[in-house]
């Protein structure tokens, strides 16, 4: 199995959220008064604070579900090695899983038994379509 790497703070995924007008106004007050540099800074800080509060529960869930935490890069060489060993990979990641652009669809289907990613999966459209029945 390929090695899982720590994600750098610069690695991020864009999300969209809906907030009430009142909550947004309260955030804008804190930004205006200099507590945060902008709305994004406030939201990012709030999320980090909540995740810090729930750290033990997150850690227990990762252990219980045998998930890897961080960045998993699957290269063509990784998948060819798995194929040569006759091994099917079960990918379970909290963070980011990336399948290299040069991985042929046939190789991915022959070596990836399942993919469970809490975070983001980066792969070509063809790979995602070919593995759609294995992605949970």
UniProtKB/TrEMBL annotation:
<dbReference type="InterPro" id="IPR010985">
    <property type="entry name" value="Ribbon_hlx_hlx"/>
</dbReference>
<dbReference type="GO" id="GO:0006355">
    <property type="term" value="P:regulation of DNA-templated transcription"/>
</dbReference>
<dbReference type="InterPro" id="IPR013321">
    <property type="entry name" value="Arc_rbn_hlx_hlx"/>
</dbReference>
<dbReference type="InterPro" id="IPR041088">
    <property type="entry name" value="RHH_8"/>
</dbReference>
<dbReference type="Pfam" id="PF17723">
    <property type="entry name" value="RHH_8"/>
</dbReference>
<protein>
    <recommendedName>
        <fullName>Transcriptional regulator, contains Arc/MetJ-type RHH (Ribbon-helix-helix) DNA-binding domain</fullName>
    </recommendedName>
</protein>
């Amino acid at each position: 199995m390929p090695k899982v790497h720590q994600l750098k703070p610069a690695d991020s995924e864009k999300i969209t959220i809906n907030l009430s007008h009142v909550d947004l106004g309260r955030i804008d007050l804190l930004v205006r008064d200099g507590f945060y540099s902008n709305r994004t800074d406030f939201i990012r800080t709030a999320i980090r604070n909540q995740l810090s509060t729930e750290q033990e529960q997150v850690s227990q869930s990762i252990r219980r579900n045998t998930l890897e935490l961080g960045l998993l890069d699957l290269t063509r060489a990784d998948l060819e090695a798995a194929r040569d060993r006759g091994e099917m990979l079960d990918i379970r990641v909290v963070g980011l899983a990336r399948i290299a652009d040069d991985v042929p669809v046939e190789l991915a289907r022959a070596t990836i038994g399942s993919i469970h990613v809490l975070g983001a999966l980066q792969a070509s459209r063809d790979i995602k379509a070919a593995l759609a029945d294995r992605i949970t």
